[in-house]
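Submission checklist for the structure archive. All mandatory fields must be present; incomplete records are returned to the submitter.

[x] Identifier: Drug/metabolite transporter (DMT)-like permease
[x] Organism: Mesobacillus foraminis
[x] Residue count: 314
[x] Sequence attached
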Amino acid sequence: MKPTWFADVSLLLVALIWGATFVLVQNAISFLEPLSFNAVRFTLAAILLGFWLLLFERQQLKMFSIKLLTSGIMIGICLFIGYAFQTLGLVYTTSSKAGFITGLSVVLVPLFTVLIFKHKLGVNSYLGAAAATAGLYLLTLTDIASLNMGDGFILICAVGFAFHILMTGKYSSHYPSLLLTVVQIATVALLSGALAWLFEDWKQAFNPAVLLSPEVAAALLVTAVFATALAFLIQTNFQKYTSATRVALIFAMEPVFAAITGYFWAGDRLSYSAALGCLFIFLGMVAAELPSSVLDRWRKKFNLHVKKGADSEV
């Protein structure tokens, strides 16, 4: 399997993990406030990866530098902005609108790639982004006519996630994956803890009755190990083999997996429009995976067919 394809499959696994744990997180934050939950989650993940680094990958410590630290902190800040503003926005807006606006990172990544990084994109990337955006709308059936302050916070969240993908793509090929992942996750843990101390009842994060409750304990275990430590290590390690736009389209599958797991685990109903939205997102991801040469051949055949039809009418 080519490195690009293996990277895309690995990143699709990350989207599956995030989507599958959505129900767990929703249940947990009804017992432990969101910023406090994220502080504990990312702290556990940082400790887990830190021990792995010290026990099995100690040679990576020799490559530690101020530039690596700065790069990891920048990636972590982008990730924190995504999580923090998503949490804040959900206080004022609906989860369906939040899901759609967060998913707009699918459009923001290629947009920033062209405007900020001056990289050219293939036709397949634009087609994929358009199809995925349409799919996200159908999946959530967002009422864009009634925007509020919370939607603005969610838009900032989408920008944060978009820059996290772009920054990871920029720095992941220059530094050891595990060491860079530890720095970014520790950054999110520290910032989440600081805001939890300012705006939440942070003492609940140290309350054994809360932490050891089945809902919170299960969610923390699964999200810290799989949805944080493993997921971001995979992203940091494999994003160097693919493009940021393709990563954004692959991650657009997260709400699809969330809808599917919600259907099976939580009894959520999947409407016809939601099912069609899932299909559009999947087709958008497939379009992004197609080589530009394939699309060019299809376009030439289509133009030739149209030309023959016009000639026959004459």
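[x] Structure attached
Curator remark: The two ends are 50 Å apart (CA to CA). Residues 214-238 form the longest helix (25 residues).
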